[in-house]
Every structure is written in structure tokens, then in C-alpha cells.
Design brief:
The complex is a heterodimer of chains A (432) and B (587). With 432 residues, chain A is an alpha/beta fold. Chain A folds into three domains: 44 residues; 173 residues, Periplasmic binding protein-like II (D-Maltodextrin-Binding Protein, domain 2, 3-Layer(aba) Sandwich), CATH 3.40.190.10; 184 residues, Periplasmic binding protein-like II (D-Maltodextrin-Binding Protein, domain 2, 3-Layer(aba) Sandwich). Chain A has 15 helices and eleven strands. In chain A, helix 3 crosses helix 12 and helix 8 crosses helix 9. The longest helix of chain A is centred in the first third of the chain and has 32 residues. Chain A is globular, with a radius of gyration of 24 Å. Chain B has 587 residues and is an all-alpha fold. Classes of the chains: A alpha/beta (432), B mainly alpha (587). Chains A and B meet through helix 4, strand 2, helix 5, helix 6 and helix 10 of A and helix 15, helix 18, helix 24 and helix 25 of B.
Chain lengths: 432, 587
């Protein structure tokens, strides 16, 4: 029945979309020269409806990290959805590092390409966002106008308006939340370390069985930030000072040594107990995962907890893997999608961003078998039907048990990233 | 223009070619094609270099920097570990080239007159078409602490229940890189040498000299080094220099097998170019110039070494000594050859096992179960990359083949070979480190034509496909018996008819081989695809490299296998088709 009735419907949609496309082109051409001549129907449309009308039937090049097959498959699903909904051709451009997209937009700006950019949408947060925002490489004040943005309860939820403490100003739409999760091989580790202190003791007892990705890798930086915050908490608890507060302020010449010296002191002792005596580091989190599978490492961590059971199901990790969260805190942050200032398809990109924030897409994403990335939507803003979409059970033995994250550690100000990166490079970038 | 035609007219007359219409459009295109070839190869490389030189001296309008200064070089100089990076690049490049060259010579010398030379060639030539990334993945698995070698001796001999702490791959000395590069370049040099020996006059002459030497009592290996090598070497010089330039500036192998504290210079340059901190691009450009200088230095060093060896060695060529422990060398070479081939086979076996492995815990020799899951999921996502790989390969190869054929035809119309300068220019994209000019080229491409990523990638591929296609076609084309063309022309056939109906059918098999080679080269390109396409054009190779550094070894193995299968299919077709078509031409 559905199939039969949908045929003429489809034809009508196609007709409509063809009309919309022609209209879109006309609007595009006439907008600069004769804005008063716009089609009369425009006046009756809301701004969002106009975006919908203009964004349909276009290509959207989504530059997103492509190192995880699960995420890639999710994006393929999303592409099918926006194709059905808007006839948008969503192309996932798989990056090995998000900074490649930043370089790309910059190169286009260099070539004076200000309205035909190749990047339409980019998956981003933290330092990459800070860089793009500083260099005015992003489209402003659109994300906060997306219909689904209200579902994140933005007035009471700073995590969707600040990216590592930097205000987003509507330049990026929240997409998901991640926390640092650890996993270990239960055949070679009986009781895994659950605090930073225990980790150093464990590493000393099991030399060569732990490592972290070399900065500037995102995951490696996250581990260093986790260590930095915990070290300052310990220091403050011991001395009664408040050095931790500096982490939420921008890095300056005065406070850099004060804040970072404890980290270097910690790493000086920690590194000799690591994989390859801390003289060589893994390149990425995925390489770390592979070394766990090879049994070279016994303990590792990830920012995407569901990747662990998924990897076990794909045979990429042994069945003996177990996940857990550190009891002294899990570093957490929100990741976003942003639109470069010179995108060729700004409206279509917004349609995609809005779809990615929809309860349907967010619920699918949170399903552990799909991706398991935590939603940015706030349950109280959703209807009961929408809330029901998010009900899912976790049963895989390698998955992070529900409610294991007991304490959240928030990201330091992004300006610290540079300081950590350069200091690290200076001290450990060249092995002795 | 008319001067050019005069010249052609004269040379044509000299070659006793009867050309009815000297200025028909075909002849005109043919005459212009060498110029086009030179332009297509020289402009992007030079333009790309300019696009790197300007930012190196601080001129980056995008960052509002329009004054020339040396800041980039100062920053480069202050980079921690710069000397180590440069030393690693130079050492791995030089040692791997030297090893590959010496091994190739030893194999040639030891098996020069034996059926084994053909067999070794057959065994090694598939390695030639394996992209560097796939080879690196395979080698990495073999030598890792949890790799095949360790599994073979664990736990019964070593007592290892967990993978031991080792230093390979990613060792700070670059041993893994040298291993990977040597194994990859050895087949290339060997095939280049065999290609030279396949030239009728040269091959005949060398074989005769070799025989005379043997009859005079020279032992086989000594005979090769004294009677064959001095004449053979000039044909190997450019391929060796190309290998040297590639090895000192390549990205894939050091990325997958090399250390990262610090990495090689080329990898660092790529990281700086891709860094979030946009001002690092100035330093990266300065680094690209340093890379260029290092590679140029290596080439100069090699050429100098050549002269030195010639000066020192020429006396021993005629000292009459008939042998230098030949029997021992013969044995050593045999052992080394077996080792090299065994190493390659074991890596390939490992690759095949990983691609279908279920759980496979160290130190098990075999996986617990075999699954097709990795192939299934790879195929589910492979549509677009596969399509891109094939179309870009076909477009760039087709263009390269047409241009190469026209240039070779121009050679015959003028009755003389391309000038030395032109021959050198054909090698230009292989001699100039791609990391040094590709970034500049991308900048220019964006400036000229920033929308067609497909075209940009295909064009960048042409730069690397063209040299190989040209070299592969040149020997067969120059070997064509000119009498067929003369007879056809004297019967009144126009040049175009001679070209299409006489020459091309005779060249059917070599053209197919050149197409297969062109496709293989195009399939394997990583950096040009990544940069010129801005990452928008995914091919099997870009996916494989992305996956090699991420995701699972199992998926990487699947991609590596497909990377190998594609060119192999091409070569198999190139081998089979001539048996059924234009058989009369296949003489």
C-alpha cells in the first residue's frame, strides 16, 4: 500500500524539488542585484523554511575523521537519511586528522576562494575550532538558529555553547559528547589502576605495557590534560593553594611554568616505564588499540567508549577486554559540526547539521551497536515518544558498564593545548 | 613554427620517408607533442617549487604576510631534532638504495646466464606493483614484536606469553624503513636492468661479451662485473637516482614503519603542512626546500661516488684477474635471494591471514577462526574509492599513453631520439621529491581551478604515470622494424595511416603492458591524490594509508590485498589479451 501510494508522491516531490532548485538558483542570482524582485512566496516563508527550500538537492562535503569504521557506517546511514529527506548528496570526506580540513580552508582563503570552498561541513572541537574561529574561517550565528538546537536546552546547558571554554557564537552545532574511557586485557591484568597514582605504580610494575598517542594527537593530548588536572587537584589538596583555577584561564607567560612544570616532572618519571621506554610513542588511538590486540600493551584508553565492544565484535580486540572509567575523574567534552565561511552549500550544510541533531539521528548514534556516542539532547526537552528512542540496553561484556563515570573532569582552556604540545615536543619530541 | 617544419621536412627527407602532405593535422600534432610533454612535466614541477619557495621566505598573503624574510628558516633551524630528522632521511634513503642496488647487482651477476634470472624476475615483479603503503603494512606485521617471526619461536623457544618489548618497527635508527624500502626498490631496479638487457642490440652485445669473458676463463660473477656492468650501468643511472630521490623523501614507508621521536624530515614536513597552527606552513615550506637540498646532495653524492668508483675500479677491470672468490659470492647471493624472497612471501602470507583472521592472540601461529567479515565490510564501503581509483587511473593513463605514443612517433618522424634534456625532464617528477613541489602545485591548482578535484588529481597522477609509461613504451617503439613503415609510406599511406594501421597493431602487447603499468602507478599514488584532491577524492590507496595508521590490521590487510589485486588484474589482462588480438602483429 505504502509503496503504491508513494510513487506519485515521489514524482511530485521530484517536481517540487526541481522547482525549488530553479527557485534557489534564481534567488541566488537575483539576491545581489535585485533583492526586491524575490519570489513572492519567500515573504510567507520562515527563515528556516527558506533554508530548507534553498538547501535541497545539493551536495554536502562533510570533512570528518574517518579512522573508525563504525562512525563511517553511521555517516553512511546519515547520508541515506538526508538523501531521502532533502535529496542531499552527503559525501563523507575521510580525514586522518581534522587539521587537514583547517589547512584546506586556509589554502582556499589564500587562493582568494571565498565562496566556492570545498569544505561544506566539518567535524570539529577544541584547538581546531579555536584556530578556525580566530582566523574567521567559520560561518557565524547559524547553529543557534537551527530548529533542533532548542532540544539541547541551550539556556541551561553551557556544554553546547562553549567549546573547551571558548564561546561558540553559533559557529558550530553540538553533535555528541565523549569521555575518556580506559580498557584492559583481563588475561594479563587482574586489577586495573583506577587513579593516576595507581597508574604510575602499575606502569612501574608492568614496564612497557602502557603508552599514549604522541601529541599533537587528540587522544594523547586528552591523556596529558587528564593528568594535568589530576596533578593540580592533588597539589591543591596537599597545599591548600588553588593552582587548578589557572587551567580555566588562558595560558600566559607568567602562569605557564607554574601550571605545566608539575606535568613535566610527572612525565619525566612516568615515561621510562612506558612502551619502548617512552622513547617512541604510538601515533594514534587506533594504533594503541592494535597494540593491545597484539598484546604488546595491556592497558589503553579511548574517547569513544563504544568503540571497544565494537572492536571486539569485529575481532579487532580479544574477548578478554574490559572497559572502565577512572575513579579520580573522566575528561569529558562536546564535539561539534561547523560550516566554513566559504562553503559552496551553506543552506544544505545547515540542513544536514540540523538533521544530525534530530532525536532520530541522535538516538541512532547513541545505540551502542551503531556508534554509542552520547547524545547532546536534553531528555526534558523531548516528547515521551522521542525519549523512548533513546532506551537501549547494554549487554556486551567488553562495554563500559552503565553509570561507571562517577566524576567528570572538564577540559582546560584551549590555549593550554599549545603550551602542552610545544613543551612536550621540546622535552620528549626527540628521544635521547 | 615554419622553421620547425623545415627541419622536419629535412629530416624526413633524410629518413627517406615519403610524406604526401607534410603539414597534415596528424603530423602537426605529432610534431608538437614533445613540446607538450615537456610543458606538462616542467610547468607543474617548477610552478609547484615556486609555490613552496615564496612561503618559505615568509610570503603568505592568506596570513597577511607579504614581506620576505628568513623567519621560516630560523624556526626550522630551531626545531628540536632537526639534525636527527635530516640524518634519518639521508641515511634511510642512501642505505636502502645502496642495498637494493647491490642486491640487484648480485642477483644479476649470480644468475646472469641462468634460467633462475627469469624465475626470480617472475617472483619479484608482482612486488613492483604492490603500493608502498601495502608493502609497509605487510613488512610491519612480520617484524613487529607480535609479528610472524616472534610467533614462530613463541612460546616454545622464547617463553613469551605476551608480545615482548622490541624495537621494530618504529626503531629510532630507521632499520625498519630501510628494510621496507630495500625490499620494495629491489624488484624495480632488477626489472629496469632486465628491461635494458631486453633491448636487442645492447642485450646481444652484452651477452656476447659475457660469453667471450667466460671463454677467456673469467668466473661468472667476475665476468658480469667486468664485461657487462660497465655498459649496463648507464641504463640504470636514472632509475637509481629516481629510487634515491624517492627513498630520501617518501612519506608512506616512514609513516607506517618509521620512528616518531622524531620522524623523518619528509613526514615532519607533511605534519607541519597539516598542522592546526597555520603559521607552521612557513616552516614547512622552508623544510621542503631543505628536503630538496638534501635530495640534491644525495644525488650529487651518488654521482660523485660513481666517478670515484670508476676512477679506482677501472684499473681492476683490465688487470686480468679471473675471479674474486666467485664461488663464495655465488653461495652468499643464493642465500640472500632465498632470504629476500622468503621474507616477501612470508609478509604476503601474513597479510592474507590477517585479512580473514578472527581472534588471533599472540603467540598463536594461526587465527582461531577465519571470517569473511573484513572483506564484507570493506566491500560495503569500497564503492566510491574503487570507482575513483579506476576512473582516475584510466583517465591519467589514457592521456599518458596517447602523449607518449605521439612523442615516440615524433622521434621517428624526425629520425632521432629525444634530446638528453628532454629525457631528463621526463624523469623530473621522479627526481624532485614530491613533498617539495606538490604543496605548491596544489596552491596553484586552487588558484587556477579550484572546483574540479577529480581533474586536479588526474592531472597530478599524469605527472607520475607519464614517465613510467613513456619509458615502458620507448624501448618497444624504438625497436620497431622501420621497413614496415617505409613500405607502407612508399605505397602511399599517409603518416596517420602508418601510425594507426602499421605501428600500433605491432605494438599492441607493449601498449597493454604500458597501460597496466600506468594504471598500477596511478593506483598506488598517495600524496598526490591526498593533496591535489584536498582529501575529497578517496581512492583505495588513500583509504589504505588512513586505515594503516588507524583502525584494524585486518581491514588494512583487506585494503592492501585489493591494492595489490587491482594492478595485478591489469597485468594479467595485458598478458592474456595479445594472445587473442592482433596476433599477426605479435612477433
Amino acid at each position: 500500500m505504502d509503496a503504491i501510494s508513494s510513487l506519485p508522491m515521489l514524482r511530485r516531490i521530484k517536481q517540487y524539488s526541481a522547482y525549488a532548485m530553479v527557485l534557489g538558483i534564481c534567488v541566488g542570482i537575483s539576491a545581489s542585484t535585485a533583492s526586491t524582485n524575490n519570489a513572492t512566496s519567500d515573504q510567507t516563508l520562515s527563515p528556516w523554511q527558506k533554508i530548507e527550500a534553498q538547501g535541497k538537492n545539493q551536495d554536502v562535503y562533510f570533512y570528518a575523521w574517518g579512522g573508525d569504521p563504525q562512525i563511517n557506517a553511521y555517516l553512511q546511514w546519515a547520508a541515506e537519511q538526508v538523501d531521502d529527506k532533502y535529496n542531499i548528496n552527503l559525501v563523507h570526506v575521510k580525514l586522518s586528522d581534522t587539521s587537514e580540513a583547517v589547512s584546506r580552508v586556509l589554502a582556499e582563503k589564500a587562493a582568494n576562494n571565498n565562496d566556492q570552498g570545498s569544505v561544506d561541513l566539518v567535524w570539529i572541537n577544541g584547538a581546531n575550532f579555536a584556530t578556525m574561529s580566530e582566523n574567521s574561517l567559520l560561518l557565524k550565528q547559524w547553529a543557534n538558529k537551527l530548529p533542533n538546537f532548542s532540544l539541547t536546552d541551550p539556556d541551561n546547558n553551557p556544554t553546547v555553547n562553549y567549546d573547551f571554554g571558548v564561546p561558540t557564537n553559533g559557529m558550530e552545532a553540538p553533535w555528541g559528547q565523549a569521555s575518556l574511557t580506559f580498557y584492559y586485557d583481563s588475561l594479563s591484568v587482574n586489577t586495573p589502576p583506577t587513579t593516576l597514582n595507581e597508574l604510575t605504580t602499575w606502569a612501574a610494575q608492568n614496564p612497557g605495557r602502557f603508552s599514549y598517542p604522541k601529541p599533537p594527537d587528540f587522544l594523547g593530548m586528552s591523556f596529558l590534560k587528564y593528568a594535568l588536572v589530576i596533578l593540580h587537584e592533588q597539589h591543591d589538596a596537599d597545599t591548600g593553594e588553588n593552582t587548578k583555577a589557572q587551567l580555566n584561564l588562558p595560558a600566559t607567560e607568567q602562569n605557564t611554568a607554574l601550571v605545566l612544570d608539575p606535568l613535566w616532572a610527572f612525565l619525566d618519571d612516568f615515561h621510562p616505564t612506558l612502551w619502548r621506554d617512552g622513547e617512541q610513542f604510538v601515533q594514534t588511538g587506533a594504533q594503541m588499540r592494535r597494540l593491545v590486540d597484539d598484546t604488546e600493551l595491556s592497558l589503553a584508553f579511548t574517547f569513544s567508549a563504544p568503540e571497544v565492544p565494537a572492536a571486539v565484535q569485529r575481532f579487532d580486540l580479544p574477548k578478554s577486554i574490559r572497559s572502565y572509567a577512572m575513579s579520580d575523574g573522566s575528561l569529558s567534552n562536546t564535539h561539534f559540526v561547523a560550516i566554513p565561511y566559504n562553503t559552496s552549500h551553506p543552506q544544505a550544510a545547515q540542513l544536514v547539521a540540523n538533521f544530525l541533531m534530530s532525536p532520530e539521528a541522535q538516538a541512532h548514534k547513541q545505540t551502542s551497536a551503531v556508534w554509542g556516542d552520547k547524545t547532546v539532547l536534553v531528555q526534558s526537552t523531548l516528547s515521551s515518544e522521542q525519549q523512548a528512542l533513546f532506551d537501549s540496553k547494554q549487554t556486551h561484556p567488553s562495554a563500559l558498564p552503565f553509570d561507571s563515570i562517577t566524576r567528570i573532569v572538564s577540559e582546560p582552556h584551549p590555549s593550554w593545548v599549545d603550551g602542552i604540545m610545544q613543551g612536550w615536543q621540546m622535552r620528549y619530541g626527540v628521544s635521547p | 613554427m615554419s622553421q620547425g617544419f623545415d627541419k622536419i621536412a629535412k629530416t624526413q627527407a633524410r629518413a627517406h620517408l615519403i610524406v604526401l602532405e607534410q603539414t597534415d593535422w596528424f603530423t602537426r600534432i605529432v610534431t608538437l607533442s614533445p613540446k607538450l610533454l615537456v610543458l606538462i612535466l616542467i610547468l607543474p614541477v617548477l610552478g609547484g617549487l615556486i609555490g613552496v619557495v615564496l612561503p618559505a621566505f615568509g610570503w603568505v598573503p592568506a596570513l597577511d604576510k607579504t614581506t620576505l624574510n628568513l623567519q621560516g628558516f630560523i624556526e626550522l633551524w630551531q626545531t628540536p631534532g632537526l639534525t636527527r630528522m635530516a640524518a634519518l632521511s639521508v641515511a634511510t634513503g642512501l642505505i636502502s638504495t645502496l642495498l637494493a642496488f647491490v642486491l640487484a647487482l648480485m642477483i644479476l651477476a649470480a644468475f646472469f646466464n641462468s634460467v633462475w634470472l627469469q624465475r626470480i624476475e617472475h617472483l619479484l615483479s608482482p612486488i613492483l606493483v604492490i603500493p608502498h603503503a601495502a608493502a609497509a603494512i605487510a613488512v610491519g606485521f612480520l617484524i613487529a614484536p607480535s609479528g610472524m617471526f616472534a610467533r614462530l619461536i613463541s612460546p616454545w623457544l622464547s617463553g613469551w606469553a605476551l608480545a615482548p618489548n622490541g624495537i621494530l618497527p618504529h626503531d629510532p635508527y630507521g632499520i625498519s624503513i630501510i628494510l621496507g624500502l630495500t625490499l620494495k626498490e629491489l624488484p624495480f631496479l632488477l626489472l629496469m636492468a632486465l628491461g635494458a638487457l631486453a633491448q636487442p642490440e645492447l642485450g646481444k652485445k652484452l651477452r656476447q661479451q659475457y660469453k667471450v669473458a667466460l671463454n677467456l676463463g673469467y668466473h661468472p660473477i667476475t665476468a658480469f662485473f667486468k664485461a657487462v656492468l660497465p655498459l649496463l650501468y648507464p641504463f640504470l643511472r636514472l632509475p637509481i637516482l629516481a629510487v634515491l630521490a624517492y627513498a630520501s623523501a617518501s612519506v608512506e614507508m616512514p609513516l607506517i614503519l618509521g620512528p616518531n621521536t622524531p620522524p623523518t624530515l619528509a613526514v615532519s614536513i607533511m605534519n607541519w603542512f597539516n598542522d592546526v597552527d597555520l603559521t607552521l606552513r612557513i616552516k614547512a615550506s622552508a623544510g621542503a626546500l631543505l628536503q630538496l637540498a638534501l635530495t640534491a646532495g644525495l644525488v650529487a653524492f651518488w654521482l660523485g661516488g660513481e666517478k670515484a668508483i670508476k676512477a679506482c675500479g677501472s684499473a681492476s677491470l683490465i688487470n686480468g684477474k679471473r675471479r674474486y672468490a666467485d664461488a663464495a659470492w655465488q653461495k652468499i647471493t643464493g642465500v640472500l635471494t632465498v632470504f629476500v624472497i622468503g621474507f616477501m612471501l612470508l609478509s604476503l602470507v601474513g597479510l592474507a591471514l590477517w585479512s580473514i583472521a578472527g581472534y588471533w592472540r599472540f603467540p598463536a601461529m594461526l587465527p582461531e577462526q577465519f571470517v569473511w567479515l573484513h572483506f564484507d565490510s570493506a566491500f560495503a564501503q569500497m564503492g566510491t574509492p574503487l570507482f575513483n581509483t579506476l576512473t582516475i587511473g584510466l583517465v591519467s593513463t589514457a592521456f599518458a599513453i596517447v602523449l607518449a605514443l605521439l612523442c615516440l612517433e615524433a622521434e621517428q618522424l624526425r629520425a632521432r631520439y629525444l634530446s638528453n634534456l628532454t629525457s631528463l625532464i621526463i624523469y623530473l617528477p621522479l627526481l624532485v621529491p614530491s613533498i617539495a613541489f606538490l604543496f605548491g602545485l596544489v596552491w596553484i591548482q586552487q588558484w587556477l581551478n579550484y572546483q574540479s578535484a577529480f581533474f586536479n588529481v588526474a592531472f597530478a597522477h599524469v605527472l607520475f604515470v607519464l614517465p613510467y609509461v613513456f619509458l615502458s613504451l620507448a624501448s618497444s617503439y624504438r625497436r620497431l622494424d622501420p621497413r614496415f613503415a617505409h613500405v607502407a609510406a612508399s605505397l602511399g599511406a599517409a603518416p596517420i595511416k602508418v601510425f594507426f594501421q602499421i605501428k600500433l597493431p605491432q605494438l599492441f602487447a607493449p601498449i597493454l603492458i604500458a597501460i597496466a603499468l600506468g594504471l598500477a602507478i596511478s593506483f598506488g599514488q598517495y600524496l598526490p591524490t591526498l593533496l591535489a584532491g584536498g582529501g575529497r577524492i578517496a581512492t583505495i590507496t588513500t583509504e589504505a594509508v588512513t586505515l594503516a595508521n588507524g583502525a584494524s590490521r585486518r581491514t588494512s590487510a583487506v585494503y592492501a590485498i585489493i591494492q595489490m589485486a587491482l594492478p595485478l588484474i591489469g597485468f594479467i589482462l595485458a598478458w592474456i589479451l595479445p594472445k587473442y588480438f592482433f596476433r599477426s602483429g605479435a612477433r
